Amino acid sequence: MSRVVTFGEIMLRLATPGHARFQQAMPGGLHASFAGAEASIAASLSYLGADAAFVTALPANSIADACVADLRSLGVETKHILRTAGGRLGVYFLEHGANQRGGNVIYDREGSSVAITPAAEYDWGAIFVGCDWFVISGITPAISRNAAEVARVAMREAQGLGIKIVCDMNYRTKLWNWEPPLSARELATRTMRELLPMVSVFVGGVSDATAMLGIESSGDLQALARQIVAEFPNLSHAAFTLRDGSTAAAQCFGGALYEAVTDTLHTAPRLTITQVIDRLGAGDAFTAGLVFSFLQNSDPQTAIAFATAAGCLAHSIEGDYNYSTPSEIEALMQGDGGGRVSR
User: Fold this and answer.
1) Coil, strand, or helix at residue 219?
2) Chain segment 263-291, per-residue pLDDT in tens
3) Could you tell me if residue 163 is inside a domain?
């Protein structure tokens, strides 16, 4: 199977227990795990059985050691993770939403190792040996000016080697603040428009496309996909997550995949989620499912159905990583979504 490399930041995730608010949980105990878009994609791919590597920069301390060990326990290749004397492990705090109250994330990641480590420190030639797919998100260039430059260098190196690049847009308005007085949206649009010409597969929600590319949607998803591909003709596919919900706990999750060569939009039925355990990482699970399907040479309809089912199941699992097997995802694709006990 082809090798997949992902690059980005991994953080310590500190979540309040249950649905407690920060002021209820602190002082007190928070649940600690590790999380980050590209790390989550690599972990999900590895759990599905793919050959996945994650690249980042981490400080040389025992907490970062635990982070690397956690990735290795899932089979993720970590040998190209840099350990640095400077910088730190970023942190984010999570308060789960409930009913009509949405969730809340507070970042504490400024000055992280990956934010300050220059592109020249990474051995891109060794990193990309045997690699066929490179996955990065719109979060990485949002972290800092340096991280945006590292993303640009990594993508240029991958493109030069003929590696297909997947970009999961992931617009984070709280992060795009490294070039005042530009607004988050202005900086994101300028930066991502510089990077998208190198990308083969666009992944995101409709709001990601409008916020980060400055493309307004009329509500016609195929027309939006056509416009994105017209502006960035290196794209072979544009994939969209489709989400709506009445509360934080009740959601509908779907997906669509536009294939440029055939000008065809393939859609998967929206799946109803009546009890969200954890919605963070669902988009990463969707992207991992899509890339895994590409590795399997699945037809586009199967690929988007698999990605959507993977993203749906991720809502049932605490933490950012999707501990769902191919057989569980395929069962949901085939309509087995009743939650029966396997005996």
Assistant:
1) coil
2) 999 999 889 888 888 889 999 999 999 99
3) yes
Q: What does the alpha-carbon distance between residue 46 and residue 77 come to, in Å, rounded to a whole number?
A: 9
pLDDT given at position 316: 93
- CATH number assigned to the domain comprising residue 179: 3.40.1190.20
Residue 4 contacts residue 135 (beta carbons within 8 Å): yes
Q: Give residue 18's domain range.
A: 3-333
Distance CA 67, CA 59 (A): 11
> CA-CA distance, 53 to 51, in Å (whole number)?
7
Distance of CA 82 to the CA centre of its chain: 21
DSSP 272: E
- In angstroms, the CA 86 to CA 117 distance is 8
- Does residue 245 carry a pLDDT above 90? no
pTM score, two decimals?
0.95
- The CA distance from 305 to 293, in Å, is 10
Burial class (CB in 10 A: 0-12, 13-18, 19+), 329: buried
Q: Is residue 246 part of a domain?
A: yes
Are the CB atoms for 94 and 16 separated by under 8 Å? yes
For residue 343, pLDDT beyond 50: no
